[in-house]
Specification:
300 residues; alpha/beta; Arc Repressor Mutant, subunit A; D-Maltodextrin-Binding Protein, domain 2; 3 domains; two-stranded antiparallel sheet; 11 strands; 50% helix; 24% strand; globular; DNA-binding transcriptional LysR family regulator; LysR_subst-bd
Length: 300
Amino acid sequence: MDADDLRIVDAVARIGSMNRAAAELNMVQSNVTSRIRLLEEELGVQLFVRHSRGVEPSEAGLRLLSYVEQIRALFQQAITAVKEDGTPKGKLRIGMLETTAGLRLPTLVAQYAQEYPRVELAVMTGTTTSLINQVVEHELDGAFVAGPVHHQELSEELLFLEDLVLVSPLSVRNFGDLAKVENLKAIVFRQGCSYRQRLGSILDGLGIRYTVMEFASLDAIITCITAGVGITLLPKTLVERLWTDQSVTVHELPVDQAQVETVFVRRHDRYSTSALNAFLGMSRQISNIGTLDRQVEAID
């Protein structure tokens, strides 16, 4: 079994047809069929179940497929490592929370793009849960997520501490007013967002009833909050930038509810390229962890 065998298995399983898989792979169908048959003989198991509509992976085939993406990623990492000469270049895929992108992305990306023009940087946004899964599955080189994470396949580095605040329409002056709002709407990101989970815990702890309005983007949430549709939970620094006209009420929270860590996660076993090292180095330069430590020392 070699890399070409795995590439063929992946294509056949994904497409569900030997003929169409052969077309995608620029091979003749007889060659694809022969390679699958020889691989099955070598392994002593049936990898595909044939039926009138095509083929589908057997249980043994599914077990093999679970390793295909990992092996493909390892091949790509090997190629990257061999070509590595210490100069940041090539593709770099970074994940971020929408709020992190709003707070940190403009400065970070502008500086990085200027200093390392040979890097093809792609930034994807998502929830903490979805981004962690993408890093684990080798779809991202790393991601900024809400921590702590404690995942056995990932390393994490604390880079930012944010203070969250509850944002509401001006008519809601305090938490007493909040409890009196009829049909209260919690404006949140989709499932898997740590801010959504925390807002739910806060409202549940106060015994406040609410319904959820779910959005996929920070811009949509901001628009709804500005229009007075409901409430949300956002980093205080971001809120101060967005609502300079004081058109909303900002509610401070207890420290244990307000403070959230933003950590950078990446796989333990993934080769760390010059492009990723440079990106992490730049992220550490804008980290507020050292600043916060100095503030605490000054207070002490």
